[in-house]
Amino acid sequence: MRLCSLLLVMLLALPTAAQPPKVTPGNRLAYLGDLDPYYPHTKFPKLITPQWVGEPDVDAVVVLAIDDMKDPKKYETFLRPILNRLKKIDGRAPVSIMTCDVKPNDPQLQTWLKEGLSLEVHTVDHPCPYFRPGFAKAKDTYDRCVDRMNEIPNNWPVCYRMPCCDSINTPSPRHWAEVFNKTTSPVANAPGSPPKGGENFLTLDSSVFTVFTSDDPELPKELVLDEGKERFKKYLPMDRDFVNWIENYPYPYVIGKYCWQFPCMTPSDWQAQHLHKPNNPLTLRDWKAALDCTVIKKGIFNMVFHPHGWIKAEQVIDFIDHAVAKHGKKVKFLTFKEAADRLQKSLLTKGQWRGAADSVFIADVNNDGYLDVVDLRPRREKTYLWDTEFSHWRVVPMPDHTLGSIFQSSDYSFGVLHKNGKASMAFRHFAPPMDGLGFVDQGVCHFDGAKWINDKAMRSVFREKQGAKFPQFHRLVDLDGDGVCEMIDVNGKAFRYEPGKDWQPLPFALPVGKETLNAGLMFVDLTGKGKLDVVYSNEKEYGVHRFNDMKTGWNKGKGGKPGDATAIPMISRNGTNNGCWAHSGQLWWANEDTVLLKNNVDRRAFKDLLQEK
Length: 613
Known about the structure:
Number of domains: 3
CATH architecture of the largest domain: Alpha-Beta Barrel
Distance between the termini: 46 Å
Largest sheet: 5 strands, parallel
Radius of gyration: 25 Å
CATH topology of the largest domain: TIM Barrel
Mean pLDDT: 90
Oligomer: single chain
Number of helices: 13
CATH class of the largest domain: Alpha Beta
Structural class: alpha+beta
Strand content: 25-35%
Shape: globular
Number of strands: 38
Helix content: 10-25%
């Protein structure tokens, strides 16, 4: 009875809206301009396993990733039965070990690598929460671990997992903006000597949890419900106000251009033992159900487990046996390294993701519910559409004048400019200077369902400092929720798109200066009515302004200086994301300033932000 009461209390404590704020059809591509770890949701376009795994019979991938390694002997003892069982499948032992610190020359590491394991990154010091030592030390323990894993002969780490990401609110957009998406710091041999080592980076992260729920129409109720209640939500540690999760999205997705997120599966073994004690057979039962859901969704199952007595090796083997017996070749066991290699091979034609990310966009171009690839790198300019009928990539060339091959640099912005919901792309190319002035070529093209079409009315070629026929775009967003984007230019002025004409100015502009437009401004639907309100906060000012209509734009709202009684925490710090995101009807902050607060986060409810005082 006490257990049932506890479960009921925890279920009642679950947030009623576990997803990001409502996204209107016109803003379905707005995520490309944000750094938000939690934007996917049940209806977000998929990147199913057949799109990237490279084997026609495989529908789902399982990554067995064990955390916290410092003592290889302990991990060899725990893992050996699991490795031997995996070898019986295809002669490999694909397990990823999220490592803290080891001696790079430990012979056990080479034995594992030859068997097919990969050694990945989990910070050297395992700070929990991650930012408690302060930002500099948090970055340092991450950097040292990345560099240490690169020191191990024959090992090429690709993936990171945030310490304690299954138990408390440790992940933060600030980490992705200022740590993961950078390279490690150069390391000097001795004072005065040139840097040696460092400048390494990773491609994958597996720190965000996905949870299957009964809200997904693709999933049978018997898999997602247990005696009429949510089978998997009960594992989220809501007694800790846990917010590190998304719903029904077991697919890779991109965070901030450079990071591929491979979401973890709920529950981890820690979450399970936190709910109903270690080694519980219900954990294994629900893992099997989650794998069955993953196969139906054609997704990835990234298991988080430890050798700390929370789950037995025999239970992991039982899970493997279930995968083989029930799903056979539909399930492929991979390491994170193998998954990263296949993902890159399927989505890129040569090159590394880090070098291509500024010119390759993962987006649902034709609005069919599956992600496509828009590759705008010089001499590779093509769109790869996923053909759902024949399960292969279909190549679509880019139109003339959208290509940046001959230009010094290019900017791109994606949005929806037609009621059909298909993608449009605004582009701006900068040619090398001639006689002190460079040429600028900018315009818009639209995808019509089969091909890209240049919008001739939107094209403009001009010399720098000579003015432009069209305004310089900043981003495309649907301000009023009518399904079609407006354009915000670099000065904060608003324009609307009219077919056959150029950008038409609207009678309003953003209620901020150009500096704030690029530092600390968020478009958020605070009212749930589909209109984009403005929230901003940085070292100089803060403000909240509700969107009224297409004649007056935003109201004046409230605002002021940091330190005011109604001031909100900084959304931007030194021009980059300060660890802020929108989730469950609130703005959240997680950074070095919030680690001592309750549950390690700060927050502001949308309804409170709308209060005038």
